[in-house]
FMN reductase
Amino acid sequence: MKLLIISASQRTASQSAKVAQYIARQDHGFTSVSHFELCRFNLPFWDGDSETKSLNGSGFETLNQQVKHADALVLITPEWGGMASPLLKNFLLMIDGQNTAHKPALLVAVSSGISGAYPIAELKMNALKNNKIVPIPDHLIIRNVQQVLDSDLPVNPRDEDLRSRIDYSLYILHQYSGALLSIRDAHKNRAYPKQQEYAYGM
């Protein structure tokens, strides 16, 4: 099974990317893992027109194909002003629901301080309705991110506890990926008669 990690800071060399790289190095149980930083793909602002996705050399189709072949996702967003990254929300509006439906996702918020809960709540509330990504019950909030995950070994008890929690969350994500595989197969090969009529959540 394939894991796709998407970090959604609008800055290069970000703390979100650091967290993504740490997660990618862990023993997560997946056969392969890929990490993409959204800020490196020149995605256009989504206006509802499918042709917009490919404007100006956008890397959207590369990302879309990666999502299509992934069995599970890790979506990482920095917290800016109590909100999820606009870049991530834009991407989640653009992606093809046929490529994302019934795939589990681990949501991760990154904060330089003690906050981080609001982006998780925002994503669960209104970012996953039409693409039908399934957020697993676990999520991660990486608080005071500059003080953790910087070395091969934990530097303090909080860093050690966080690493253990990341390992557990990846284990659960892997379990959900296998469990939802039969649903994804049925969605693709034995579709409900009116499946396309119900492509959007209520």
Notes: The first strand starts at residue 2 and ends at 7.
